[in-house]
Amino acid sequence: MVKEVRVIMDETAIRRALTRIAHEILEKNKGIENCILIGIRTRGIYIAQRIAERIQEIEGMPIHCGELDVTAYRDDRLEELALVPQDGDFAVNQLKKSLGNVSIQDKTIILFDDVLYTGRTIRAAMDALMDCGRPRMIQLAVLADRGHRELPIRPDYIGKNVPTSNQEEIEVTLSEIDGKDQVTILQNREERQS
User: Fold this and answer.
1) Would the CA dihedral through 192, 183, 42, 119 be positive or negative?
2) Any domain includes 95
3) N or C: which end of the chain has fewer CB within 10 A?
4) Any domain includes 2
């Protein structure tokens, strides 16, 4: 098997998508009052931070930005988690630490993830958030939505819709951890015999 790689978003396309999402967030929420951005580990954190920077450039005001590790809340990795003890309190404490003294109670939370696929990561994130408090509303922003949902979850803000087959994968790389900004689609191909 050979993986065929096709770039669907380059650095410029990602920058434009994030700028558009920042404007959509401001428009939908009529500003940033009582809004908190929370990135899902790992790449969602950097997307949330970039959006926070754009919002500050546009509005001239900072917005609270936190991070969330949902590993302990995943229902599709219970066998893996049994091998390595995980504690839901870790996610709650980590989120509270990243937000400082800011409570999510009665706030509009905008969750960020790189790719939306089955919806299980987002469900886990919502469970973790509910253990931290009761937000007024939770909105979802993703860089790429590839479809194939297993749960009734729909993003409010989308960088790019990417219809895919189950044989394809979407890979997001970000300069903060991967050295470059790019979204690619990977597809397994049979290697031709000569």
Assistant:
1) negative
2) yes
3) C
4) no
3-state class (DSSP) for residue 140: strand
Give CA–CA dist 93/8, Å, rounded. 36
Q: Is the pLDDT of residue 84 over 80?
A: no
**82 is a domain residue:** yes
Average pLDDT over residues 6-23: 98
Q: Flag whether 14 is in a domain.
A: no
The dihedral built from the CA positions of residue 77, 80, 86 and 90, taken in this order, carries a sign that is negative
| Domain that residue 43 falls in | 29-164
**Tokens 């920077």 map to which residue?**
53
Nearest residue to 172 (alpha-carbon basis) of 1, 20, 45, 36: 45
Ranking 20-34, 59-73, 80-94 by mean pLDDT, the lowest is 80-94
DSSP three-state, residue 173 = strand
pTM: 0.90
Q: What's the length of the chain?
A: 194
**Closest Cα partner for 145 from 29, 30, 11, 9?**
9
- As given in the structure block, the two tokens for residue 101 are 């003294």
CATH number at residue 124: 3.40.50.2020
The total of structural domains in the chain comes to 1
Q: At what angle do helices 11-29 and 43-59 cross, to 10 degrees?
A: 60
CA–CA separation, 88 and 164 (whole Å): 32
